Each structure stands twice: as C-alpha cells, then as structure tokens.
Amino acid sequence: MTEKNSYDIAIIPGDGIGTEVLPVGRSVVDKVAAKHGFSVDWHDYDWSCQRYETAGAMMPDGGLEELRSKDAIYLGAVGWPSVPDHVSLWGLLIPIRRAFDQYANVRPVRLLQGISSPLAGRGPEDIDFVVVRENVEGEYSEIGGRIFTGTDRETVVQEAVFTRVGCDRIIRYACELAAARRGHVTSATKSNGIIHSMPFWDERFRAVTEEYPHLETAQFHIDILTAHFVLHPDWFDVVVGSNLFGDILSDLGPAVAGSIGIAPSANINPDRTAPSMFEPVHGSAPDIAGQGVANPIAAVWSASMMLGHLGEAAAAADLITAIETTLKNPETRTGDLGGSADTRAVETALLRTLDKPTL
Ligand code: GGG
Question: Is the pTM higher than 0.90?
C-alpha cells in the first residue's frame, strides 16, 4: 500500500481509563509522525456512556457515516457501571466492527523483556502468539428474543450465527498470519458439546487448512485449551477462535504475559473497504479510573498496530522499541506490572525514548 503524508484518524476515548490512555497514544503517534515525515489529523469524538446519559445514545445518528471517511479509528474503552454493558457495547463498539466489516480481531500476546509472567519459569521465548478472533458473527448475535416476560414461563432464546463465508475468511486470515510467523495454527472449538455450529467450524478449519499444507495445525476444545495456555504457552503461534472464544482467550493470554494493561488489539477490515479500528483489549476499569494510574502501554501498542496497518512500518517499529525500553526500567512500570509509575510518568518515558537519535 502507498504511504500518505497525512492521515485522518477518528479518536474515540470512550469511558473510564480510555480517556486517560488514549491521549498518551496520541502524543507518541504525533512524535513518531514528525520524525518519519507524516502527520495525523485527529478527529475527536466524545461518544461514550456519558453521552448516552445526556443525549440518550452512545453515538449520534449518522455517526458511522462520519467515521467511514477516516483512514483509521483509534478507540479507548467502552462501558460504565451506570449503563448496562450490552447497551454500551451494542451502541458503539459492535456497530463499528460490523458496519465496517472488521472481521479479524487480531490480539498479539507477547511476554516482553523485563516483565515477569505469573507462570513460574517462563521467559519471553516461551510466550509469543497471536489470538485471531472472529469479530462480526458467532455468539455475538442479536438473533433471539424473550417471551412470557416477567412470568414463571419466561423464556429466552439466543442464536449463534456461523456462516461458511465468515468461518472461512477468519480461518484463512489466521493461516496467512501463521505462514508469515512460525507456521503453526491452532483452532479453538467445542464440538463435543455444541452440536451444530462447532462441528461446522471444525469442518471449515479442516477444509481451509488443506489449502496450506506447509502449516502445522492443532485443534483443542476451549476448556482444555485454556489449561494449555497456562501450562504450555510455548505451544502456540496463531490461535483462531469464534467471537466469544477469541474474546475469552485474548484476556487469558495477556494475563499469562504479565498484564492485560499491555494487551493491544486491531479490528481489521482486511479488504480495506472501510477503516479498521485499533483499541486496547482492556475495558474502562472503573476501579482505577480517574486516578491517573492506568497503564497506557496497551493503547500505545494498539497505536503501533494502527501505524503498521497504514503502511508506516518504521514508525510502528519505533513505538514497539519505545515500549520495550520503557518496560525494561522498573521505575517506568505501572502498578499492574508491580511498579509505581503513573500514566504521565510512562508517557514521559516513552517520549524521552522516542527523542533518542538511535531509535
Ligand atoms: N477497549 C476495549 C473495550 O472497551 N472492551 C470492552 C468490552 O467488554 N469488549 C468486549 C468485546 O471486545 O467484545
């Protein structure tokens, strides 16, 4: 893809610590942009639970069309205790993923130098994999309903949706990624208990991976797979799962790699027919919001993925080096990593590292 001189990026800090970590991402992106000869026009949106409470909607009518013209979307966190979680998620995050066909949710898990894993005896060489989550169908479906509400016959039905197109394209995406990495792809399934969708998922995994005979493949039921993440994280290179399984695995993975506070994610539209969206895996963390102690590394790593997607590989790599340098120093680690630095101190350290001419 061709690099541009300037990018239009929508920035949606959202709720809670999203509003504290995204400004850090923005300032480091501005810094590397200046160094690498491009600029970013940030377009600010206050779409959030706070907006829901005052205006009755997470985003305004026409919000999605407003985003469509942007080169990328940079999002913080969605959710606040005063608004039901399904209302905030289905009012902002999920409509964006679907409207822009961001069907691949890519969530790298890497134990970085200097960070200790809660798993005894594990180092950076043991934990380096990517969870590829199907992002627009599966268990996240609005098909279903409730009848006999409020009576003792109350009945709720929730349908999962697994299409051949949807399964094949996410499994293919995972295979392509594995081919560019260590050549191993694992499928998360549950075809012993879930009788229709999961045997179909397995069938499609077999069919698509046959197109990639050079890849090694594995398949585990989700229950034992979670145990293997803890006991054998070194077995994994690329792990592909449905919307729900991928979501769960991509919280477990970062916990194994030290903290969810460093976990990035990219909601990718691989066909580039609409903007992709980049966001930390973590949510709004009401327990620590407003204290200025949130770890901004996940937001910065997500910003690096955004620059990589835009074709700014050197700037993206600079951000990763700055993250690694900052985390190596115990004094510039936040509380979730056993340190005492606040968000601002980590930002200062990242900017200082980016100032170094050797970077
Ligand atoms: N920064 C991501 C965020 O706010 N996530 C909240 C959440 O619960 N997400 C669920 C999901 O990713 O499906």
Answer: yes
